[in-house]
Amino acid sequence: MAGLWNWSAAGLIQPERVRNALAGALEAPVTELPAGVPGGLLCDVYHVGGDFPTLIDVFLAPDDIAEETAASAVAVRLEAAVLLPDDTLNPTRYVLAEPDGTLRAVHVDEEETDDGAERRHARPCTGADPACATGPGCGRSRFRPVAGPGRPAAA
């Protein structure tokens, strides 16, 4: 275990509920900072504004499970959408783990505040969104752009 995951969840979710969902999804003990449990994960949860106001930082994340798999399982347990970084360098592009476990690429408007990043206006990555042009990689991602109404998906 050595990774760091930074997620945002829709709705104001209590830290203990987030830690319980993470513990259930990963079948591992999860504690808050600064406490620690040998072999466990550390999880900091705090709130900001925006459409995804619950920020979740997971320290000592396992390297034997894909981050998007873990986020999907947590989203199901929380019954709330969870945003996580995708595999591109586009600063507006994320993977959205929906409450039913579905994973899809989205673009999000982001604003840095003194309390942390506020994320709003999640919309599907179609390859035609102006945000697709602000950074590389939408078409090369494992999470491909989706077809918009009346048009094929971008390659």
Low-confidence stretches: 150-155
Tell me the β content: 25-35%
Terminal-residue CA separation: 35 Å
Give the overall silhouette.
globular
Strand order of the largest sheet: 2-3-4-1-5-6-7-8
| Radius of gyration computed on alpha carbons | 16 Å
Provide a descriptive summary of the structure in words.
By secondary structure, the chain is of the alpha+beta class. The protein has one domain. The chain has 2 helices and 8 strands; from the N terminus they run E-H-E-E-E-H-E-E-E-E. It has an 8-stranded mixed β-sheet with strand order 2-3-4-1-5-6-7-8. Strand 3 and strand 4 form a beta hairpin. Helix 1 packs across helix 2. The longest helix is centred in the first third of the chain and has 12 residues. The chain is globular. The C terminus is likely disordered.
Summarize this structure as a short list of keywords or feature phrases.
eight-stranded mixed sheet, alpha+beta, 2 helices, globular, 155 residues, 35% strand, disordered C terminus
SSE order and pairing:
Layout: E1 3-9, H1 15-26, E2 30-32, E3 41-47, E4 54-61, H2 67-78, E5 82-85, E6 93-97, E7 103-113, E8 116-124
Parallel strand pairs: 2-3
Antiparallel strand pairs: 1-4, 1-5, 3-4, 5-6, 6-7, 7-8
Region (Disordered): 109-155
Biased composition (Low complexity): 144-155
Short note summarizing the structure:
By secondary structure, this protein is of the alpha+beta class. The protein contains two helices and eight strands, in the order E-H-E-E-E-H-E-E-E-E.
